[in-house]
Structure formats: structure tokens, C-alpha cells
Specification:
The chain is α/β, with parallel strands linked by helices. Helix content is 31%, strand content 30%. It has helices spanning 11-23, 36-46, 76-90, 105-117, 128-133, 146-155, 157-161, 175-183, 235-241, 279-287, 319-327, 355-360, and strands at 5-8, 29-32, 58-61, 71-74, 95-98, 122-123, 140-144, 165-168, 188-194, 199-203, 206-207, 212-216, 219-223, 230-231, 242-243, 246-256, 259-265, 269-272, 275-278, 292-302, 306-315, 338-341. The strands form six sheets. The protein has a seven-stranded mixed beta sheet with strand order 6-5-7-8-9-10-11, sandwiched between helices. Strands 12, 13, 15, 16 and 17 form a five-stranded antiparallel beta sheet that branches. The protein has a three-stranded antiparallel beta sheet with strand order 3-4-14. A hairpin with a 2-residue loop joins strand 18 (269-272) and strand 19 (275-278). Helix 1 (11-23) packs across helix 4 and helix 3 (76-90) packs across helix 4. InterPro entries: AMP-bd_C (IPR025110), AMP-bd_C_sf (IPR045851), AMP-binding_CS (IPR020845), AMP-dep_synth/lig_dom (IPR000873), ANL_N_sf (IPR042099), ATP-dep_AMP-bd_enzyme (IPR050237).
Length: 363
């Protein structure tokens, strides 16, 4: 078995280590975030002193936005399959701009695509527009999280328009944001995927070539060459989620007009006062309110209700107004019992909302 090498999570260090594993000259590695606490979690999940499972090229640690971080084993073949199928979907290889952290799968795969395309990636500095203007490739691509897209639509619209395609991942893209991008002439493609699927494997609801989608009582199942090999030193957990070649995600979904529609996580349905409440539906409705800039809805343990529905909202609307707004299209029993006003939602480095931090503030 191989040993695992820890490398700094900087673009240059990750690119160098990645180039080595892709051409067969390097050794498996795990990138370390600069934050000491995050680096400690990576060290724990990656377990560099333990023998490494066969076939692993990279160990990435999940963000732990809603649970315990895990070391995800990605093979060289999975990395290449993801990058190749992405280029095929977008219309061919191109030059990539990196505005994301390279120690998460979205950023790492931007570097993988760059290596396979033979074009140096452009690493974003303080200015998105300046980085975009420095690109020289015949086709230009980037990837970002929804919050970045929303920001750049306000501040860097011309730069956004200069890209042949922009992959949006890391979190669900609000319908209003997709509409704004389309109206502005920006080619933004929502992607669904995760570290275990080698980054996005479903673009605009359609699986990439080689990827198959199925369902088990609403649970999304994924099969294909981009899948991870397992969790680092967690064979029991691997056996739970990898069965007969299918990855059993923690998300619920359905096909609508032949396209995958992600409804939410399996744990996004809570029982409040004896009523099943689908939290993503409440959140989606709140985001339709003209005075709400951003929102996330969570279930908080409650001695009286079992779970109480709490909305964390960036905007000017008050609790009663938002409850009435939700109740116009959803059952009033689904309306949030508590609304927490915020100037901004706390985010993890991966671009996902830090749910644990929000819950700590209301318990």
C-alpha cells in the first residue's frame, strides 16, 4: 500500500501534486487548508500515518456542513472521468479561472481540467474582472458557488459574460438567481454533485456521459466512473452508501421532464407539532419574497413542538409578514415559528451555509 502525503492547500502546491498523480509520477496526497482548525480536521480524516487504500490518488475531506467530516478517496480514473465528461458537456477543453479553494473538490477539479487541457489555470486575486481579463484560452470557463454569482452579477457583469460557461455548485442555486443570470446574458449552469461524485456529475438536471441516476423511495442514487472509492479507514460507512456500484446520497429528488430535480436532503423533513414540514419548500418560498436577499430554514429541537421551524433571513421583512407570505402557497403549519434576522449567512470555505453555527445560536 502507498503512503499519503500532506501538501499545503495553495493553488500552486495542489496543482503540482495533482499533476504528479495524473501522469503517474507522483504519490497520493491530501491538501491542507490554511486554517489550523480546518487543517486538524483534515489530518484526522485523512490519517496520513495509516496505510492507504489501494488505487487512491487524492483524499479530500468533506466540509462537515451538516455532519462529521470524512476522508473521501478519489482515484486517478475518477478525477480524469469527471474532468473529461465536463469538457465534453461544455463543448471542449478550455482555460479555467480558479475563484474557489483548491482543497475542496470544486476547486481541485478546476485544476484537474486545466492539467488535462494543457492550459495553465488563472488563479483569482482580489479582482474577478482583472482575472477574467487576463485569460487567453480559446474557450473560457470557471466555477463558483451561488453567493459568488450573485455578487458578481452586481459588480462584474461584463466579466461574467466573457465566459463560455460558468458552473454553479456547492449549494442549491435559487431559481431567482438563475433567472437573473440568464436575463443578463450569463451562461451559468447549475451542477449537482459532491465530493463523493468527483464534483458535479449532473449539469442543468442532465447526468454527464457515463453517469446514471436512479431513486430508492425518493433517495437519489448515482452510478458512474466519477464515483469515489470509499471513505478513508471507514469500511462500514463505505458499505452503507456504496452498494452494487450505486452511491446512495443523502438527498431526495425526482425526474421532472426528464431532468433531475433535487428536492432536499433526507433530513430536511422535520416533524413540528405532529406535522411533517419540508424545509426546502419553506426556504424556496421565502426566497421569492422581494425583501429577502438570502435565507436558510432549519429544524431546531424543541421540547413542545418536537422541532420548531426557524428561518434565518437576510432582508427587511418581519416575522408576521414572512409567515403570511409562506402561508399563501404552503400550509400555515409550515410557516416558520421563529425568524432570525441576519446581515449575512455564515458560510464555510466550501461555499456552503454553516448550519451548525446557525443552530448553535438558537439552541
Amino acid at each position: 500500500m502507498s503512503t499519503l502525503r500532506l501538501v499545503p492547500g495553495t493553488p500552486d502546491a495542489v496543482l503540482s501534486a495533482l499533476s504528479g498523480v495524473l501522469d503517474g509520477s507522483g504519490t497520493p496526497f491530501a491538501p491542507l487548508p490554511p486554517d489550523p482548525a480546518d487543517a486538524a480536521r483534515v489530518r484526522q480524516a485523512a490519517a496520513p500515518d495509516e496505510p492507504l487504500e489501494d488505487g487512491c490518488a487524492v483524499v479530500l475531506t468533506t466540509s462537515g456542513s451538516s455532519g462529521e467530516p470524512k476522508g473521501v478517496l478519489l482515484s486517478r480514473d475518477a478525477l480524469i472521468a469527471s474532468a473529461t465528461s465536463t469538457h465534453d458537456r461544455l463543448g471542449g477543453p478550455g482555460q479555467w479561472l480558479l475563484p474557489m479553494k483548491p482543497y475542496f473538490v470544486g476547486g481541485l477539479q478546476i485544476l484537474t481540467r486545466s492539467v488535462l487541457a494543457g492550459l495553465a489555470p488563472v488563479v483569482m486575486g482580489e479582482s474577478f474582472s482583472a482575472a477574467a481579463a487576463s485569460m487567453t484560452g480559446p474557450r473560457r470557463y470557471t466555477a463558483m458557488v451561488p453567493t459568488q454569482l450573485a455578487r458578481y452579477l452586481e459588480t462584474d457583469l461584463d466579466a461574467l459574460r466573457s465566459f463560455d460557461a460558468i458552473i454553479i455548485g456547492g449549494a442549491a442555486t435559487p431559481p431567482g438567481l438563475k433567472a437573473r443570470a440568464a436575463e443578463a446574458g450569463v451562461t451559468a449552469i447549475p451542477a449537482y454533485g459532491m465530493t463523493e461524485t468527483g464534483s458535479g456529475c449532473v449539469y442543468a438536471g442532465e447526468p454527464l456521459v457515463g453517469t446514471s441516476i436512479d431513486f430508492d423511495d425518493g433517495r437519489i442514487l448515482i452510478k458512474g466512473p466519477t464515483l469515489f472509492s470509499g471513505y478513508r479507514l471507514r469500511p462500514e460507512l463505505t458499505a452503507e452508501v456504496l452498494r452494487d456500484g450505486w452511491f446512495r446520497t443523502q438527498d431526495r429528488g425526482q425526474l421532472v421532464d426528464g431532468r433531475l430535480q433535487v428536492i432536499g436532503r433526507l433530513d430536511d423533513v422535520v416533524i413540528s407539532g405532529g406535522v411533517n414540514v419540508t424545509l426546502p419548500s419553506v426556504q424556496a418560498r421565502l426566497l421569492e419574497h422581494p425583501a429577502v436577499a438570502d435565507a436558510v430554514v432549519l429544524g431546531v429541537p424543541d421540547a413542545e413542538w418536537g422541532s420548531r421551524v426557524v428561518a434565518f433571513v437576510v432582508g427587511d421583512a418581519g416575522r408576521d409578514e414572512l409567515r403570511d407570505f409562506v402561508a399563501e402557497v404552503l400550509p400555515r403549519t409550515w410557516a416558520p415559528r421563529e425568524v432570525v434576522p441576519m446581515s449575512a449567512l455564515p458560510m464555510l470555505a466550501s461555499g456552503k451555509v454553516d448550519r451548525r453555527r446557525l443552530l448553535e445560536g438558537v439552541r
